[in-house]
Each structure stands twice: as C-alpha cells, then as structure tokens.
Description:
five-stranded mixed sheet; disordered N terminus
Amino acid sequence: MEQNELTSSQIFEEQSDNHSEIWNICMNMVRDRVNNQTYKAWFEPIIPKKYDGENFWIQVPSQFFSDWIDEHYFSLLNEVLTKVTGKEIKLEYIISTENETVIVEASLPEINVSSRGVSSLNYSTNNNSIQETNTSFLQSYLNPRYKFENYIKGESNQFARAAALAVANNPGGTSFNPLVIYGGVGLGKTHLIHAIGNHAYNTGKTSRILYVSSEKFTIDFVDAIQKDKINEFSNLYRNVDLLIVDDIQFFSGKEKTQDIFFHTFNTLYQLGKQIVLSSDKSPKDLQGLNERLISRFQWGLTADIQPPDLETRIAILQKKCSDYNVDLEHPIIEFIASNVTSNIRELEGCLVSLIGRASIEKRKIDLDLAKLIVRSIVGETKSHITIEEIQRVVANYFNIPEDMIRAKTRKQEIVNARQIAMYLAKEMTNSSLKTIGLHFGGRDHSTVIHAYQSIEDTIATDPKQKQLILSLKSKLERGIS
C-alpha cells in the first residue's frame, strides 16, 4: 500500500455534504450482515470523512485496525457502498495518530497468479463473463497468506496436514486423488487447501492451479449456460493440473451442477491431474449428492480435522500475537485458549476483539479485559481448573502424598487415586490425552484412555464411586482442596 504523510490541517478542509448520510445508510446494511460484537469492535469506531463521487475516505484509529478491515471486511464495505451510491467507489483510510495523519489506499488481497507461460481460458472478474484468452498466466484465486509455514500443526490436524503436504509436493502423483479434507466450521480446512496450491506453485510443481468455491463453480456454470459458453466453461475447469474446490457440501440439490462437476472430475482424474476438495462432513455423510459423485469422492484419501486441543490453541494464539506484533502475557493466552474451544475462527476473533478493544479504548490488555471479551463471545467462562489442582485435591482426599500419584508404584490404592485423577483431568480440563499422561509421570495416552474407561465402568455399576466423583468435582469447581 502506498502511504502519504500529511499534517492534520491539510486533511479534508472541504467535505461533501452527503458523506455522513451515505455512511449511515451503509452501516444500517452492515448491521444486518455481522453480529453485534463485530459491529461494535470494527465498524462503530470508523468515522466517515469525505466522499467526492469517486473516492470515499474513512478515519480509523490505527494501522492494525485498517489492516484488519482491509483483509476481512473490504468486500463487505465495497458491496454496500456500491449499492448505496450506484457505482464502484474507491475506499481510502485515514489513520490518525497523535503526531501525524496517514492516508492509506484500501485494496483487496493480491491474487496469486502464475508467471509461467500458459495458454488457457481465463474467467474475467471484471465483467463476470468467461472469455477465451491466450494469456501468459492462469489466475489461481489462491490467497497467498495461507501457507503451510503459518498453519499450526497439532494432534487434531496432523494427519490432514501431512496428506496435504504430500499432495502439494507431488500433485497427481500420489494415491491421494482426490484428497478430501473435512471438518467443522472454522477448523482450518480452507487454509490447508490454499496451502496446497500455494506450495505447489511456489515450489514449481505446477503453475496450472485453480481454487474455487462450490458456490463460484455453480455461478460460473449458470453464467456459461446463459451466455451459451458451456464449452469455454468446461475447458477452463478441465485445463488445470490442480483443481481445488472448497465446501463441496453446497453442491447438494444442484443436479445440473453435480452433473457437470462429475464429468469435470472424470476428465481430470483420467488425465492424472490432482483434485483437492473440502467439506463440512465426510463424503459418505453428505446429503443431496448423487451416489456416483460420492463414490468418486471416496476414491482417494479422506482426512478429517478435529477441534484443536489446548496446546494447539495456545500455539495458534501465540502465532497470531506474533503476526499482529502484540505481546500478551501467557496467563491471558492460556485463559482465552481454555475458554474458546469450538474452532480456530472464533479463537482468532476473540483475540482480534481483545486487541481492537484495547486499541480503541487506549487501555492495557490484562486478564480482566480478556474475561470481558471472552464472556461477550462465548458466555460465562469455565472455572480454570488445572491438572495440578486435580492431583492435589485427589491426593488430599485419599490422604496420600501428591507426588505418589505421579510415581511408578502399582499399589492398588495409588492406582485407584491416579485413575480417578486422570478421569477428572479429561473431564474437567481441555488438555489432550498426551498432556494428561505427561502430568502423571510421563505416561502415554493409552494409559489415560484405560484409566478413563475403568472409572467410567465403575461409575456405571457402583453408586459410591459415582458419588465420590461428583463430590470431587464439586470441590474442584468451588476451589476447595
């Protein structure tokens, strides 16, 4: 982005009369598209400054703020401004600090394109039509920010990541064709499939790469039908070495789209080209797709991504803090990671809201502010119970030294106490099986699973054991040793 430093007195002495009115209308539209927390954190602080018929200037509180808006909400702002004004508007930011004012031109993230010579069909985004071209590049529509290097590996995603890297290193040359990566919302599927394309391109494995969402594939197909350009459409999607399709579950119910994708899939597969797909469910669990398509999705490798464990969530937050050049104390990071557990997107959203709130209110990020932000996103936080606290409470109950729970002894009373402590650690913390085992003398995850199952079985048949577990849980929740 190009920046021009100006003094405050030089900025917009003459403002158009209607810029505030236009902005207010736009913000009413934005309110319907984002949740209240997002609106308050990222849109309420924006101040409209000027509109000259072609450019719209908005004032934001910091460089970090403008970068985040540019990356995540530029398209939304561009859309509402276009609807309200009836034409394409150039958006520019004014970043005000105590000593200077800087104008920053807003822009969409770069599209990663191949510079190698490829004669191809190219989808033009300027006029939403498919054109036959003889250009020196094929637009890939990959997001260059998504790479393996900034994808945090953990137990929940290591298999999917390993498979993705294998495909990226040898597209079409492994048995992982197609590669289907599935998992819930916000777990990193899109990041991983973009990383495949970026790695394959940057390492020179292939330059003919196309990433597309299932929605865009459908829109392109409908557009091709309307303009009688089915042949051009087919050539575009069948003249690539690596086709990446995101969210295939949205093909559900679209019979004609499924049919054209079936033939596209067959052509690419028979030519030995790589196909990478993502979905929110395993192919066998997808509804509304015809059987022959599901069958082909299962020809290669299916890899799932699970919600990240505590250690991975902490690592993700630490990486994001480094990206944002923000230094958070470990207790704050651990608190967020312990309470925001559903997906990575929500985890990052919490961190961004925290940084944004501190930036807007010009206050230090502390645990109290973190609790406020987390509560607004996920509701009441869970009591932060540690494995060490569980070990202490269990040891006190059984009147044994705390270090004996971690010792190698096989005395029955110690084994029983250790299994109960492991059971409670799995029930009441977000720690992985591996982490729990490490806290109990370096035992492996299979020992933790055995302990958990043993206590589960005992609870089902022994009312006294069930009551004991409930009593210990109550003590821990109330902070009683």
